[in-house]
Amino acid sequence: MTTLFRKKYIIMCLLLLFIAFTNYYGHIVLAKNEKSNLTVHFLDIGQADSILIQTPNGQTALIDSGNESDSMYIQGYLLNLGIKKIDVLIQTHPHEDHIGSMDDIVYSFEIGRVYALDTDYDSRANTNFKEALKQKGYTISCPKIGDSFKLGDACFQFISPKKSKYKKLNHCSLVTKMKYNVTSFLFMGDAEEIAVDEIIDSDDDLQADVIKIGHHGSFGSTPVGLIQKVQPEYAVITARKNSKLLPHIRTNFNLKIFGVKTLLTAGSGTIVVTSNGQKIHMTRNPYKNTDSESLIK
Ligand SMILES: [Zn+2]
Q1: How many whole angstroms from 48 Cα to the centroid of ligand 1?
Q2: What is the CATH number of domain 3-283?
Q3: Distance, CA 214 to ligand 1 centroid (Å)?
Q4: pTM to 2 decimals?
Q5: Residue 87 CA, ligand 1 centroid: distance in Å
């Protein structure tokens, strides 16, 4: 047995134990995707991103895949929902907290298309991700601004990065807007500062009911101009518990003065949003199975 297959075998055994444990004790109540609803899951993996989208016709997209240590959690979450295939895998940018588990995802699931940046960013996670793609015979599509694709009845459009090169990798984040009938979502990756300013200055239709705030709510992630253009009802921030740095106080303040209902994965657990095409609904704390809701007061 090669080292690679031994590793995969051990991971699969641990996953089966994990799933059996969570099912037996019933502590994890996963939201089932109702047939007429589109569902977006913002996984609670601390200061890291992994967002699962399920369309009513059973297709799935996964935006990012957390740190390496989140692998079992993410795979268990997907398997518990009965997911075997990820139709679209998006890597917003190759920082560890966005692609750490992506090699395991590629090895464990059938993948349709892979969208990622054209970058040789040198890190173990990125090398492992590219090796996994090679082993499975998948290739990367590098989207251009304005490129779009359909997932069931949901339409995705890439709106950033606006330039091919930036000093900071966060600025290169693939930012996507998803529209499902009249409801819409904006996934900002780790976009901040100059990248966000360029998005604001563009002619893009940015209006969205839900915005996944860029770079875990950093200082430059959510200027007033962005909120004015997006006009979100809800903001989701992927953050860890008790972090003194993120989300930044300026981000919290800007969202608060515009009355945006803001939820942190740190306090809510995995946040599940459903859309019937006309209205969106925030499911209260489904993963932790408690009644708490972490709206910033
Ligand atoms: Zn990040």
Answers
A1: 5
A2: 3.60.15.10
A3: 8
A4: 0.87
A5: 23
